[in-house]
Amino acid sequence: MSPILYAFIFLAAVLAAEAIYHLARGRAVNRNTSKRLERLAQSLEGPRARPEETSLREELTGSISNQILAAIPGREEISIQLYRAGVPMTVQRFLLVSLGMALAGLAVGFAMAPGSAKALLFAGAGLLPWLQVRRQIGARMAAFEKQLPDALDLLVRSLRAGHSLTGGLQMVGEELSDPIGTEFRYVANEISLGSDTKRALDNLLYRVPSPDLPFFVTAIAIQQETGSNLAEVLDNLANVIRERFKVFGKVRAITAMGRMSANILAIWPLVMIGAIYLVNPTYIEPLWAEEAGRSIVLVATVLIFLGYVICRRMAQIKV
Fold first, then answer.
1. Which one of 1.20.81, 2.40.128, 1.20.120, 1.10.150 gives the CATH number of domain 140-241?
2. Which tens digits make up the pLDDT trace of 235-270?
3. pTM
């Protein structure tokens, strides 16, 4: 078959999947308001009740394809991972995108190497959305941690001005940007609608796996039990977090040489192969033209990867 025909078949499959998805989603357009209310009510029931899980169970009952997706284990974990990454996408759409990219990679692989088992390696393109989600989770959590001292300072000023804890959380949600503004606004809304403060903060811990956030939650819990000066405690906590970031910056500066060594170790062989190929292509050609050369490349790739991982691990110091 012609590669163009493969491309047309893949495009038709993607368009058909997209049409089925939008038809299934169209049934729920008139129920958007009730869904939002049900999600909010579900979030008030406990720290493990996530709004995404409620909408997921509702959306997975529309068609046969959705029922198949409902049988996939770990869909709730995928939902919370998408939420933490800030990806405005349902689990169904995310899985369809991953499947579509895997099929596209497979089609390209068979077009480049018809009948070869190596074409199956191109199906690894379906892992790209998962890697992107992991990257966005790391970036969003890092942004949350950087915003946390400023949020605590704003909350301290609000408490010293005579506002309640809920009012301070709402002020942080209105004044600061996403992600910390969004998360604190959710907490304030849950408390305002009757949820217990501890439960709302437990929901926050579930949504945001930040290492500094448990100290904030513990400080509020102790203040509610003992009646301590919450503003002073949060002020000290903000200073501690800032000092930790300073130490972390110093550590990164000290370990920069190790990270650079790992990058050079991974890139330099490719640079040398490219340079030799430009100077004398026949000299380097046995690396991929002969079986022994391909074996050497495979072993060298594994060793380079292991060396890169070891160097990066040696340069990572937890603060």
1. 1.20.81
2. 999 999 999 888 888 888 888 888 888 888 888 888
3. 0.67
